[in-house]
Please model this.
Amino acid sequence: MTSKIIKSDLVVALDLEDRILEEGYLVIENDQIIEMGLQKNLDSRRKFDEVIELKNRLVMPGLINAHTHTPMSLFRGHVEGHTLFTLDGWYNTIRVLELDMEPQMLPGAVAVSCAEMIRTGTTCFADQYFWMDQIVPEVRRSGLRASLAYGIVELGNEQARHRELAAATAFLENLKGDDLLTGWVGPHAFFVDNSEEAMRIELALASKHNTGFHTHFGTDDEEEIHCQKHYGHSAIEQLRQMGFLEHPILAAHCITLRKEDFSKLAHTPFSVVMAPSSGMRNAAGIPPLPEILAAGINVALGTDNVTNNNSYDMFKEMAMIGKVTALLTRNPAAISTRAILDMATLGGARALGKDKEIGSLEVGKKADLISLDLEEIGWAPRGGQDIYTALVYSITGQHVRDVMVNGRWLFRENQWQTVDYKSARQELEIHHAALMRRVNK
Ligand SMILES: [Zn+2]
Model:
């Protein structure tokens, strides 16, 4: 067993007691936090295998990006001025590129996405895409913690259903017992491009593998119209009757989620994943966050793909949700900065069913943490701004200097430790050029 002690000017635990330790320390044994406290109470005779002095640094839990599609950094810049939230917009911008994409084009894009997440302080993310066999090795190499969902689109086609569900089954089998990666089922959108028949098989698959669903919900009213027509009630009521609400569901966007259904989702494993930049850039909107939180529904935060929002920086996403919520409600205090931080940490962990392991700095939890540079620009004078407000509105991912996942450094003193960003970036360029040649032939 190896033990290390991390000493820092400020440790912001983001736990339920809201502990903030000035001149604090954490002791880490292998992958776990085993002790936390104030440096002044530390016995100076104690020995550790490694002493890490993080001077002029703030240490906090790593951020959790609860909705993305890592291969899509390949398409960054290709959707400007279009929306991906309509079938037309999506088909004519992304689907036409995906039809020419080949499996070997994914790894470089995934590595770049992982590098950007690490660089900006994300330690765990939820992904959804097809060709997971190309994605898993890159994520594993990065050292990030992830919930990976095998993306399924079958549009009622029997052949596609068999093929996609067989691939999803093999994927779940392969990830069994993995320390950092968890397999999920990823129906792209219930009722819209996944038929009831596919959904029943997906439900059995998730039950067998004790996992959940990562999906898009309520990007417009397609599933509501379908369910009202076919079942005579709402999509959420239909999901409830089918037994889906007993399983974790990461539901990205939820823009058209009906208020009448809020109470059905309270205190269930259904989580609304807010992706405000994506909702705004697609001119689609976001759901009423204060009401969703007040109803007792778990809320997480995600960037969505970077073709939509152009950035993996979860700090920017936190600022965005605060600003847009203030604007939409005409109330600058509509949501607290502490609640926003919760969405990006413990709320995300809850959504992924990992809140006993990650999401806050606590004894017994995994050592997933980041450090921020207190000498970088943007901080208010001491005492001039509470620390939660600074983290949400003043700071960006560019303040991140160190990132640890499961007790291992992925980013140390501003340097990547696991991902070779330069070569990943070169690979991305080569495959993007090849994709363009195929598209324009
Ligand atoms: Zn998405």
Q: What stands out?
A: The chain has a mean pLDDT of 96. The longest helix spans residues 421-439. The pocket of zinc ion is lined by residues 67, 69, 216, 252, 304-305 (CB under 6 Å). The chain has two domains: 3-61+367-416, 63-351.
